[in-house]
Each structure stands twice: as structure tokens, then as C-alpha cells.
Design brief:
The protein is an alpha+beta fold and 284 residues long. The chain has a single domain, classed as Acyl-CoA thioesterase, double hotdog domain (Porin, Beta Barrel), CATH 2.40.160.210. The protein is 15% helix and 39% strand. The chain has five helices and 13 strands. Strand 12 and strand 13 form a beta hairpin. The model has no long low-confidence stretch (mean pLDDT 85).
Length: 284
């Protein structure tokens, strides 16, 4: 059996160090081939959670069930390896106003991640938006813009080409990776999710929101691992523009369970929320 050009490209990124990829995944028939841009911070052989999250959200949007995607629940069931992936999608119509979509990601026939999307039909055609003062929460009414953000800060503990160092631009407003406590930063996904296809706004949010636990950590990176088991997103509308703002904080208990939450912004203001369930464990 012949080996496709896409497969050769994918293998070359990891085996012989060819030039940097220009997307997160290459397609080869029904396969999604990860490039080196998806590598995560916890294990050099596993993907950053933001990459498969963006992929599944991208494919859910392509289903176009009728309603507008309003909430996504993403479950990362096990580390997603740097190997070819397959993806299944389906639509469940709960009613005229509500549809649910599902995506499941497999590596070597084993389910590694899944996503459920909630799509709601717009029922008010010419309504008036609620007063902005009724929808504000947190310290930022409008998150400070890029002109007020500091230079890009990369996580210093990640040494290899990875999602956080090469696939995403990061500009901090407050805090940084090395400072425990709440933080706010702007994120821009620099490369397409699949091949050269346009990046959907929800994919930009999924890629950025998976950093809530990273930028809003209350733990020392050198002493603890605090990877997320899921990612839940809720947006009142699609983000406008390439940059997504995240203002994140972590709420932790003494028994090693924590929740990281963040407000999601674009240049016009807050558009929604992100939530992650975290398992805390000491580094070996």
C-alpha cells in the first residue's frame, strides 16, 4: 500500500525535523494527521488539549444542524497521542429550537476525546439587547486591548516545538505563566486547524480557553501537574476578530480537585465563559 504525501509530511515533522508546519492537522482520507504544532506541555508524546478541542469544534460547526452553536462540552478522556486520528460526528435533533451535535475522536481505535454541542435557534428577530450593565461580571468591564498587553510570554518549562509556543500568540495583560494567581491574556491561533481551511471563531475560542488552567494557575509549574479533564464553553455570540481574550482564575480544594474558570472576550467585550475540571498531582 502506498504512503500518501500528507502522511509523509506528518512523519517528517517528528522524525527528521523539516520546516515548521502551517496547520495543526493534515488530512489524509478519513485521517487527521497531527503536526508538531499540537504537542502539549505535560508529555512530549501527547497533544495540547486545545488542539483536539479546536478540531472537534471545527467539525461540529461544519454539520450546520440549523441552530447557532451556543455551548460546547469537551471531554478529554485520556492523553491524545501524536498519531493519526479518526473523527466521527452526528446530529441529534431534540426539537425545532434545540439541536445537539456530537464528535468523538479516536486514536488506534480507542476513544480519546469527545465533544457535545448545543445549538439554539434564534427566536427574536428584531429585539433590543439587554443593558450592558446587567451582563458585566469580574474586574474587567472591557478587557484591556492588545496595545496595553505585554510582549508575548511563552511558558519557559516547554522546551520543544509545541501548541503553546508556536501555534498560538500569547500577550499578557495581567500575570504570567510563572506567577500563580488570576491572569488575563490575549490569544491568537496562528495556523489553520485543518489543512488551509478558514479558522472558525469557535475554534479560536476553544484553542484559547484551554489555557485557563495555565495562565490562572494557583500551583507551581515545577512542582505540580494540573491538567484538565474537560473544557466547557458558553458563548452568547461568535467572537469578532482573530484575538480572543481570557481572564482566568483557579478554585482549588485540598484534596487535589480544582476548577479553572475564565471570561472570554473579543475587542467589543465579554462574550461568554469557559470552565475546566482539574486533577492536581505532584510532578514525579
Amino acid at each position: 500500500m502506498g504512503v500518501s504525501h500528507a502522511t509523509i509530511r506528518c512523519l517528517s515533522f517528528f522524525q527528521v525535523g523539516l520546516s515548521l508546519a502551517d496547520c495543526l492537522y493534515l488530512t489524509d482520507g478519513d485521517l487527521y494527521l497531527p503536526t508538531e504544532l499540537v504537542r502539549g506541555p505535560w508529555d512530549p508524546n501527547s497533544q495540547h488539549g486545545g488542539a483536539p478541542a479546536a478540531l472537534m469544534v471545527d467539525r461540529l460547526n461544519k454539520l450546520q444542524p440549523g441552530g447557532r452553536l451556543t455551548r460546547v462540552t469537551i471531554e478529554l478522556m485520556r492523553p491524545v497521542p501524536l498519531t493519526p486520528l479518526t473523527l466521527t460526528t452526528s446530529v441529534e435533533k431534540s426539537g425545532r429550537m434545540v439541536q445537539r451535535t456530537f464528535a468523538e475522536l479516536y486514536a488506534d481505535g480507542i476513544a480519546v476525546a469527545r465533544a457535545e454541542g448545543l445549538h439554539l435557534a434564534a427566536t427574536i428577530k428584531d429585539g433590543t439587547a439587554p443593558d450592558e450593565t446587567l451582563m458585566r461580571r469580574g474586574p474587567f468591564e472591557v478587557m484591556p486591548g492588545l496595545n496595553e498587553a505585554r510582549d508575548q510570554r511563552r511558558p519557559t518549562h516547554v522546551k520543544q516545538t509545541s501548541f503553546s509556543t508556536h501555534a498560538v500568540d500569547i500577550r499578557f495583560v495581567t500575570g504570567r505563566f510563572s506567577e500563580p494567581g488570576p491572569a488575563a491574556a490575549w490569544f491568537r491561533l496562528k495556523v489553520p486547524v485543518v489543512d488551509d481551511e478558514p479558522i472558525h471563531p469557535w475554534s479560536r475560542v476553544a484553542a484559547a480557553a484551554d489555557f485557563c488552567n495555565g495562565i490562572g494557575s494557583v500551583f507551581d509549574w515545577s512542582k505540580f501537574v494540573f491538567a484538565n479533564a474537560d473544557l466547557v464553553l458558553g458563548l452568547s455570540r461568535d467572537v469578532d476578530g482573530e484575538w480572543v481574550g481570557i481572564h482566568a482564575a483557579t478554585h482549588a480544594s485540598a484534596d487535589g480537585v480544582a476548577i479553572a474558570e475564565g471570561q472570554v472576550f473579543d475587542e467589543h467585550g465579554c462574550v461568554g465563559i469557559a470552565l475546566q475540571s482539574l486533577l492536581i498531582r505532584p510532578r514525579k
